């Protein structure tokens, strides 16, 4: 099985909405060792200028991965997940993800490159809120190791 | 905490080093919080069966823990407006746990936007585990 190059440039219909709860944020913050009260204390978050508790900067990956599932799990895409390693990840936040958000993810397969027998697949997810305003842009590159 | 002031930051300023312990329970908590339940991050027998030396940390846990160090420096986690990395080495987590050492340096400051660009270095047992790890912090 090899990665299907025909998927390069494909844009998927929006997926979600993904509801963001204060409990999700608190659990994620604890798991990455953050004790910043903006993740757990709504008063502290409001004092910092946010409407409610906010997510740590890498929590957007959860919504990124839920959005990209429709692509990587498509048998036609030719991605053998047992051979996948995470190569690169980046986030641009237009505003912090906030408790109460209903996020929608729109996925684009930015590039599929082949090098040294491996395939490098870069996908981009635009996360928007219920009003359609941009929240975060996440970019992931996965490496699909070639067969031996 | 309050966000760090632009006027208090200088190019070349160091962040850390901060030691971040990681145990198997840390990875279980991260798996539950993130939804990434790949058994290579929790199940030693499974990890060894697929050719890994032991349980390995989620790359995104390592990135997240490094992000916490940057966010603590920023004084407000919402001020980390950009963050990106490559995953260059795995973090092997034996039964007794291990630790990351996270440092940062302010590479540049932009007066117009009051933003700092931070180069982050994260090591485990002396080896770099993240490559080209860069954060942009919105200062006050």
Explain what the structure shows:
The complex is a heterodimer of chains A (148) and B (140). Chain A has 148 residues and is an alpha+beta fold. Chain A has one domain (5-144): Hotdog Thioesterase (Thiol Ester Dehydrase, Chain A, Roll), CATH 3.10.129.10. Chain A has 3 helices and 5 strands. In chain A, strands 1-3-4-5-2 form a 5-stranded antiparallel beta sheet, covered by helices on one side. The radius of gyration of chain A is 17 Å and the shape is elongated. The termini of chain A are close together. The mean pLDDT of chain A is 96. Chain A binds chain B through residues 24, 27-34, 36-39, 48, 50, 54, 56-59, 61-62, 65-66, 82, 85-93, 96, 139, and chain B through 1-3, 20, 26, 29-30, 32-36, 50, 59-61, 63-65, 67-68, 70-72, 76-78, 80-87, 135.
How many domains comprise the coordinates of chain B?
1
The Cα radius of gyration of chain A reads: 17 Å
Number of helices of chain A: 3
Shape by Cα distribution of chain B: elongated
CATH topology of chain A: Thiol Ester Dehydrase, Chain A
Largest interface: A-B, 36 and 36 residues
Which structural class do the helices and strands of chain A define?
Answer: alpha+beta
Helix percentage range of chain A: 10-25%
What CATH architecture label of chain B applies?
Roll
Label this structure with key terms.
heterodimer, A: 148 residues, alpha+beta, Thiol Ester Dehydrase, Chain A, 5-stranded antiparallel beta sheet, 3 helices, 5 strands, 34% strand, elongated, B: 140 residues, 6-stranded antiparallel beta sheet, 36% strand
